């Protein structure tokens, strides 16, 4: 080796290759550990979380079926109530129409009774005047 700079350059390059190799080996080991951790996490998810999520989804689906049934029942009750309200309204109108003439007759009888009461009061007053000693 004739040139000392060449020797220094080769030594520096050799050290750089060694440092890069150490860094790459450490990175490879870290990647292997990360891969193992990812596999463990995936296994944990598939064994623990996914079955629980499936159970929750099944329960939610069952509750949705119950909710649909309750909604349908409420709709039927609402329709029946609406029909009942319409029937009551019709009965009220029919009753009002039927009672109107009766109320008119009762009013006329009431007016006649007032006249009879007034005439009776008049007779009583006249009799009391006639009965008084003079």
Ordered list of secondary-structure elements with their pairings:
Elements: H1 4-131
Give a structural overview.
With 134 residues, this protein is mainly α. 96% of the residues lie in helices and 0% in strands. It contains one helix and no strands. It has one helix at 4-131. The radius of gyration is 53 Å and the shape is rod-shaped. The chain starts with a helix and ends with a helix.
Question: Summary?
Answer:
The chain is mostly helical.
Q: Return residue spans where pLDDT drops below 50 for at least 5 consecutive residues.
A: none
> What separation lies between the terminal Cα atoms?
176 Å
Instruction: Please write the string of helix (H) and strand (E) elements.
Output: H
| Count of DSSP-assigned helices | 1
Largest sheet: none
Q: What structural class is derived from the secondary structure elements? A: mainly alpha
Number of strands: 0
Shape: rod-shaped
